[in-house]
Known about the structure:
Elements: E1 11-12, H1 20-24, H2 26-46, H3 52-67, E2 73-76, H4 79-82, E3 89-92, H5 97-107, E4 112-118, H6 127-133, E5 137-139, H7 144-160, E6 163-167, H8 185-193, E7 197-203, E8 225-229, H9 240-256
Parallel strand pairs: 2-8, 3-6, 3-7, 4-5, 4-6
Antiparallel strand pairs: 1-2, 7-8
Amino acid sequence: MQRLVYKNNTYKTETEHLSILSKILPSWVFYPKLFLIVWKSSGIAKHSKLKIDNWHDSSLSVIRAIESVGAKIEITGIENIKSLDIPCIFVANHMSTLETLALPSIILPFKKLAFVVKEELIRYPVFKHIMRATNPITVGRENPRKDFKAVMDGGIEKLNAGISIVIFPQTTRYADFDPKKFNTIGIKLAKKANVPVIPMALKTDAWGVGKHIKDLGRIDPSKKVCFAFGEPLWIKGNGGEEHQRVIEFIQNKLLQWK
């Protein structure tokens, strides 16, 4: 299994020669590669054969595909994942489709993983087989009380089984980060399960939001792709202080990346 290579706990895309077509029409080059990756993984998942290695490799292929059209990726703070020998909760801002597809190849070498996702994702044509095979926690986004229970119950079950969880507290994807739309569900789950939270900041707007199909937006390689992981936070009291520290971590990183 190939993995991302980190130097001093940092990954950076190495400069490579791009084809003329990749330079001129990056979206047209990227999406056929993406569809092939998804189709192949879906075929494996449909027959209940999608293993952790398959999930990792397909995720890494997505990273390689977007790098192949000129996007530069930087990943920092990986030592904060390595330092933990217990499951945790990754709490992050949500910007595009890219993070959902790319994060498995970043986290799976160190932690078993599950996402909290919208129910509609497990009904997408082709893609639904992959999502179901990765056994996510699903929420409907229509009944907050029901969603809260699903995350708490499902989260405790997975954390007890040694599986870390990725939570995007924003209700949808936003190019700009608004703390008012960033809820505390990840903090509450961490407190209940007595596990740490790892703040995660990301900038993935190189994959734009589509006008007609939201997940299929323009690919803009001039925008750097960034992932940063903060130090683990153990929840004390009502978690208000830790929630604010997660927000500040994300805000500071987004400012650095402008």
